[in-house]
Amino acid sequence: MKTLQLCCALAIAVGAGAPVSRAQTVGGADSLDLSLDAALSRALDSSEEVMLARSQIDLAETRIKDALASAMPQISGSAGYTRTLKSSFRTGSGFSLPDSLKFEPDPSAPIEDRVQYLEDHTEDAAFGALGRLFSNLPFGQKNAYSLTLSGSQLLYSGGRTGAGLRIARSVVDAARLALREEEVTIEYDVRSAYYQALFTGELVRISADGLERARRFFEEEKLRLEAGTASDLEVMRAQVELDNLRPQLIQARNAADLAEMNLKRLANLPLDRPVRLTTRLEPPPPGERLDERIGTETLLARRASLQAAREQVSIREDQVRIARAGYLPTVSLSSGYGKLMYPSSLFAFDRDWRTDWTVSLNVQIPIFNGFRRAAQREQARVELRQAQLQVAQLQEAIQLQYEQAFGEKQRALAQIGARQGTVQQARRVYDLTELRYEKGLATQLDVFSARLSLNQARVNLAQALTDFYVADAGVDRAMGGNHQ
Asked: Measured between alpha carbons, how far is residue 463 from residues 353, 402, 451, 471 in Å?
């Protein structure tokens, strides 16, 4: 019955202890020595999550440039050619007069006739001049070339431009804080995986050691049977005990292999590359065991996720300002400078370029848009309130996370000393029980029970050490990382 209890205890412990591998107990020739610091460095340098968070910073910085662009002058140029295929102005040569109004004196006529013609067609001369005046205008011209340079400058937008720039900067700050929080999370994951890996490796050693003890005991029982000092029943019991321990070792090794793969995944190592963990699962030095509880203000000031949430509040406040600015006018200054030419044919260029230059001051006043501005302002206010509530929730969650991790660390620390003493006692009890059995003062069941107690004590100590280091990683995460 006690043997079954040990099997269950080992199975539960193996299932709870996350990662790692046989390579930490049996290092191959091509194994990679991996310390905890090396695993953290690899994870932070090459983690996809970290690289994604860094790319978010680059993306956010482009928003600053975009926001600045809206406050800068906007200048554009264009060049074009227009061919008029059919015009409402009848011909492509410009303005023309009816024949009755044409002014065409004959320079070869006698002087008396030319003077008389001038006196009779004085009004027609005015119309002829008018026709020549309009003949070079763009109306109905077949060919038209244009070169245009235009520019505009925003003068006043009701605060929208400044708020947009502040939002862009807040987005960059929030992205940097998100990167720091992602690094803290990865540190916690790697440290937890590493110590869980050490724990599963310790379970492999405990199972292998227990199996070796059972095997030696079984061999001794067979020798006693041959010597006539043991019965077949005692040999059979030893065989059953040995067979019951083999599945535990297999289970522990499987859990260790899964743990190793999980650690490799976090550290971005090839899954087929064996590793040997060089950081040992040992009790913490006495001088480093106790931590002082930090104050709430210090805790909250160190947490990047909370600072990022506060940046979101600032963003929402500026969005409220932008929504309010929707009721204010927009003032801008614009200018256009162009050169125009209307040649008689496509490549004739027989006429001079004409200049067209304008400057305008534009004022756009919002009057009514179906209550859309009111809805946008109310939406911005609701989103601001949500961001403020999220900050309050996050503050409570951070404090709770810290208290849980701190309490778990203190609990595990208190258990380490007691379980170290238990292991020493259990090992002494087992050695004495074996000695008593050899002298006929104890039974097989006494030996089995002592071995079970020793294995369980070793498992409990390994679990307490793992809990301590995982809780220590949790305390660092709750405080925003030990790099601060």
From this structure: 90, 21, 18, 12
Q: Tell whether 91 is covered by a domain.
A: no
Report yes or no on 343 lying in a domain: no
Sequence-distant (6+) residues with CB within 8 A of 221 are 230, 234, 235, 238
Eight-state DSSP code of residue 203 = H
CA–CA distance, 87 with 85 (Å, rounded to integer): 7
Q: Is residue 340 part of a domain?
A: no
Q: Are 314 and 140 in contact (CB under 8 A)?
A: no
350 in a domain, yes or no? no
String of DSSP letters for 367-426: --STTHHHHHHHHHHHHHHHHHHHHHHHHHHHHHHHHHHHHHHHHHHHHHHHHHHHHHHH
The count of other CB atoms within 10 Å of the CB of residue 259 is 26
CATH of the domain at 13: 1.20.1600.10
CA neighbor of 331 nearest in space, from 475, 155, 189: 155
Query: Domain residues for 416?
Result: 2-73+158-329+370-478
* Cα distance between residue 484 and residue 244, in whole Å: 50
pLDDT digit string (tens) for the chain, length 484 residues:
334 344 444 443 433 333 334 444 344 447 889 999 999 999 999 888 888 989 999 998 998 888 888 889 999 999 999 888 887 665 444 445 555 555 566 677 777 766 676 666 665 555 555 555 555 556 667 888 999 999 999 999 989 889 999 999 999 999 999 999 999 999 999 999 999 999 999 999 999 999 998 898 889 888 888 888 888 888 898 889 889 889 989 999 999 999 999 999 999 888 888 899 999 999 888 766 566 788 889 999 999 999 999 999 999 999 999 999 989 999 999 999 999 988 877 777 767 888 999 999 999 999 988 888 899 999 999 999 999 999 999 999 999 999 999 999 989 988 998 999 999 999 999 999 989 988 888 888 898 999 999 999 999 999 999 999 999 999 999 998 864 4
As a whole number of angstroms, the distance between CA 277 and CA 190 comes to: 13
Q: Can you name the residues that pair with 364 across neighbouring β-strands?
A: 330
Q: Which amino acid is at 34?
A: L
Taking the model in full, what pTM does it have? 0.73
Number of domains in the chain: 1
